[in-house]
Amino acid sequence: MNELTLPHADAATTIFNLHDYRVLGAETLSFGQRRIHIESTVDSGCPSCGVIGTRRHSGRQQRVRDIPVAGPVEVVWAKRRLFCDESSCPRRTFSESTLEIPARSRTTSRLHGALVDAVVSFRAGSDRNSHRPWGLVVVGAKSLDLGGNETAQR
Ligand SMILES: [Zn+2]
């Protein structure tokens, strides 16, 4: 369990290309969409004290929104809850997080970046007299927890 670094990633992980994650498996759902199962390949530090968690407390399957990879995908992260072993830390356990999927996020950073790029391109292409459906962009951003209130201000 301490062998988290992957000098040579497997083919699925290389193709999926989500930084700091490894593809555990994939399945095709009945309507043709693919479900990708992933796990983190990096250590996570306690958000209170920063000590790296090495002991697994529990785990759960967390669905994560991501960009299409050769078509739409459903991503399921085998997310671990770890013990904080720092005796003076008030936090006993914490969930792992990465730069790609920060704490409490259910969206990958690469999806967030792609949507921000799309919004910037959308706004750059609009003018004051156009009737583009800006509200749809705001609603979409809110549904992905992308700070829709901030993007709603024009
Ligand atoms: Zn701690």
How would you summarize what this structure contains?
The chain contains four helices and five strands, in the order H-E-E-E-E-E-H-H-H. The protein has 154 residues and is an alpha+beta fold.
Our count of domains comes out at 2
Largest sheet: 5 strands, mixed
Q: What ranges have pLDDT less than 50 throughout 5 or more consecutive residues?
A: 147-154
Overall residue-averaged pLDDT value: 83
The helix/strand order is: HEEEEEHHH
Protein name: Transposase
Domain Transposase IS204/IS1001/IS1096/IS1165 zinc-finger: 46-89
Organism: Arthrobacter stackebrandtii
What does this protein structure show overall?
It is a single chain. With 154 residues, the protein is α+β, with helices and mostly antiparallel strands. It folds into 2 domains: 1-97, no CATH class; 107-154. The chain is 25% helix and 25% strand. It has 4 helices and 5 strands. Strands 1, 2, 3, 4 and 5 form a 5-stranded mixed β-sheet that branches. A hairpin with a 5-residue loop joins strand 1 and strand 2. It starts with 10 loop residues before the first helix and ends with a helix. The structure holds zinc ion. Zinc ion (ZN) binds at residues 46, 48-49, 51, 84, 86, 89, 91. Pfam families: Zn_ribbon_ISL3. InterPro entries: Transposase_Znf. Residues 46-89 form the Transposase IS204/IS1001/IS1096/IS1165 zinc-finger domain.
